[in-house]
């Protein structure tokens, strides 16, 4: 179940979070893994074989404009509507926008895309301390076609294998290794992004990059 309150993002230091009794969760390795295999060209990545290109880079489009572009791809008969570093298809993007009441006039930029990716991760209990890694991995494989199913009849293969060009682009061992890092001890003041369990998760921006500022769940006015 998606927990709306859990997905309100704010900046906080790792040491400050520990002082509040929250469990630090290092989600950056997974974001880098899935982003690298799904959208290797970055946040403006468009699915290979798209029947047309957007009017400008997708990070310069609003969520509304991205959905319109994806609808155009559907009408043109494109095999996929996936866009961005995490390759959101239109059905998923539209669902996320509705569930979280995302302002459709918000730019589909880096921080919006990472927020939406975290929403999918949260839906798979990525941020739950007691969640079984195999179960989390199997759920994530249903969210991203490039991930392999961890257990069961489809183990090692894409859950959507056989549909278009979908195939697993990494291994079960690599996914499990990344998932196992979620709750590793985080050094005090270490400049990494973390997400927190508790009433409010938090993202710590690496270096001087300040793209992880608050993203409200309700539309901006």
Main β-sheet, spatial strand arrangement: 1-2
Residue-averaged pLDDT: 78
Percent strand equals: under 5%
Give helix and strand order, one letter per element, not per position.
Answer: HEHHHHHHE
Stretches where pLDDT falls below 50 for ≥5 residues? 1-22, 188-221
**Spatial extent as radius of gyration:** 17 Å
Alpha-beta content class = mainly alpha
Number of helices: 7
What does this structure look like?
There is one protein chain. With 221 residues, the protein is an all-alpha fold. It has seven helices and two strands; from the N terminus they run H-E-H-H-H-H-H-H-E. The radius of gyration is 17 Å and the shape is globular. The N terminus and C terminus are likely disordered.
Overview in brief:
By secondary structure, the protein is mainly alpha-helical.
Please tag this protein with its features.
221 residues, mainly alpha, two-stranded antiparallel sheet, 7 helices, 33% helix, globular, disordered N terminus
List the helices and strands and how they pair.
Elements: H1 14-19, E1 24-25, H2 28-38, H3 63-75, H4 90-99, H5 110-123, H6 133-143, H7 172-179, E2 195-196
Antiparallel strand pairs: 1-2
Helix pairs in contact: 3-4, 6-7
């Amino acid at each position: 179940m998606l927990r709306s309150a859990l997905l309100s993002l704010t900046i906080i230091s790792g040491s400050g979070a520990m002082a509040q009794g929250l469990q630090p969760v290092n989600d950056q390795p997974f974001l880098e893994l899935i982003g690298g295999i799904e959208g290797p060209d970055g946040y403006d990545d468009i699915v290979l074989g798209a029947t047309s290109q957007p009017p400008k880079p997708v990070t310069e489009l609003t969520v509304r404009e991205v959905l319109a572009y994806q609808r155009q791809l559907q009408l043109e008969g494109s095999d996929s509507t996936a866009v961005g570093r995490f390759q959101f298809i239109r059905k998923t993007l539209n669902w996320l926008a509705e569930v979280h009441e995302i302002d459709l006039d918000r730019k589909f930029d880096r921080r919006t895309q990472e927020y939406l990716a975290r929403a999918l991760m949260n839906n798979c209990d990525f941020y739950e301390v007691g969640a079984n890694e195999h179960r989390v991995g199997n759920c994530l494989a249903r969210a991203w076609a490039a991930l392999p199913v961890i257990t069961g009849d489809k183990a090692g293969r894409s859950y959507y294998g056989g549909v278009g060009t979908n195939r697993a682009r990494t291994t079960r061992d690599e996914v499990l290794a990344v998932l196992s890092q979620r709750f590793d001890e985080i050094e005090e003041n270490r400049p990494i992004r973390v997400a927190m369990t508790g009433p409010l998760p938090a993202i710590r921006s690496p270096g001087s990059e300040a793209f992880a500022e608050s993203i409200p769940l309700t539309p901006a006015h």
